[in-house]
Amino acid sequence: MLAVAAVTQSTTDPLSGLYVGDLAEPEVPAGWVTIDVVAAALNHHDVWSLRGVGLPADRLPMILGCDAAGHDADGNEVLVYPVVSSPGWGADVTMDPRRSLLSEIYPGTLAERVRIPAGNLVPKPAGLSWEQAACLPTAWLTAYRMLFTNAAVSPGDTILVQGAGGGVATAAIQLGAAAGLRVFATSRDAAKRELALDLGAREVFESGARLPERVDAVLETVGAATWSHSVNALRPGGTIVISGATSGDAPAKAELTKIFFKQLRVIGSTMGTREELARLARFVAERGIQPRIDSVIPLAEARTGFERMVRGDVSGKIVFRN
Ligand SMILES: NC(=O)c1ccc[n+]([C@@H]2O[C@H](COP(=O)([O-])OP(=O)(O)OC[C@H]3O[C@@H](n4cnc5c(N)ncnc54)[C@H](OP(=O)(O)O)[C@@H]3O)[C@@H](O)[C@H]2O)c1
Fold first, then answer.
1. Can you tell me the distance from the alpha carbon of 42 to that of 24, in angstroms, rounded to the nearest whole number?
2. Residues of the signal sequence (predicted)?
């Protein structure tokens, strides 16, 4: 089948290990099902895998991809929930130290077909295109848990979203605005700041710019490049929720003094549960939210999408179509 895989890894030239072409169908483990993928979204996770982060070299070649929307064997329209727990794990799968995302141990979604545990399906929301539905299981789920589980913000609160153009960031802006939050957003790029306003942000700022007021919570995925700004942007007692560090995880200053003096909360966040994905799907359908898509690219031309993401030239989600 046609698939997109990591065949080698390089920290400096991640695209050198990207393969797009024919690959053998992976085996179907007992209790797993096969989904015919209609659309699959690209995530920064796929670039990290090519850089050798989170994917040991002895697992190569590995089919990439965490997100997908498609048909199950009965023809139902489904979303793929990409977190696979270790055997017997009960409660919150994101707390399982031995969990994995599709493409870390088991082959991922950037293919014509993907195998997943039978319990990892959620109905595709009516009213969303296949491409929009494919955005939900990773970036949108991560933004949902950051906002509503970990930042625990309420309508009327003010949040700051760093790096407005990214997949998680655009999701956070759209979800936050739909939930009645006042959303501030930063971006390095003027066009992405304009986009953030279109998506529902109240005000937008250049990265690092002084805000008109301090915020209740910051949604941080950029990391080193924005960390000090995130700490400075918070009101006393405010919350930073961090789920990524695209620009690096070693900021010039850790800001420990400001964190304790302002009694800030710093909360890590990773993906979400299957139940949160189901709630996200209902919320998106109920509010008529249309996930922002940067571009739709045939799977066979996936390299183009990876090139754009490595350059940081993304406004919303890049989606591959079978
Ligand atoms: N923990 C989890 O479960 C989880 C889930 C999803 C994603 N993540 C992580 O969250 C991060 C974002 O993921 P994504 O899929 O949304 O990525 P993405 O679509 O590639 O977005 C990355 C964004 O980071 C911003 N950025 C700002 N300064 C940057 C700099 N100096 N260098 C690079 N980027 C910079 C850019 O925004 P502007 O151009 O607008 O400034 C860019 O659009 C990644 O590191 C990813 O691994 C974690």
1. 21
2. none
- For residues 77 and 89, give the distance between their C-alpha atoms in angstroms, rounded to a whole number: 27
CB atoms closer than 10 angstroms to residue 278: 16
Q: Which of 53, 80, 11 is nearest to 244 (CA)?
A: 53
Residue 129 has pLDDT above 90, yes or no: yes
Say if 212 falls within a structural domain. yes
pTM given for the model? 0.97
Cβ–Cβ under 8 Å, residues 99 and 243: no
Ligand 1 pocket residue status of 168, Cβ below 6 Å: yes
Q: What is the CATH number of the domain that holds 50?
A: 3.90.180.10
Same domain for 168 and 79? no
Q: What is the pLDDT of residues 232-286, one digit of tens each?
A: 999 999 999 999 999 999 999 999 999 999 999 999 999 999 999 999 999 999 9
The verdict on the CB of residue 167 being under 6 Å from ligand 1 is yes
- Cα(88) to centroid(ligand 1), Å: 33
Antiparallel, parallel or unpaired: β 83-84 and 100-101? antiparallel
283 belongs to a structural domain: no
CB distance 135 to ligand 1 below 6 Å: no
Identify whether the C-beta of residue 103 lies closer than 8 Å to the C-beta of residue 46.
Answer: yes
| Residues 6+ away with beta carbon under 8 Å from 319 | 39, 40, 41, 42, 131, 134, 135, 293, 295, 296, 297
Residue given tokens 């139940």 in the structure block: 275
Cα 308 to middle of ligand 1, angstroms: 13
Measure the CA angle with vertex 293, ends 290 and 298; round to 5°.
130
Residues near 82 by beta carbon (within 8 Å), at least 6 away in sequence: 66, 67, 68, 101, 102, 108, 109, 116, 120, 137, 138, 271
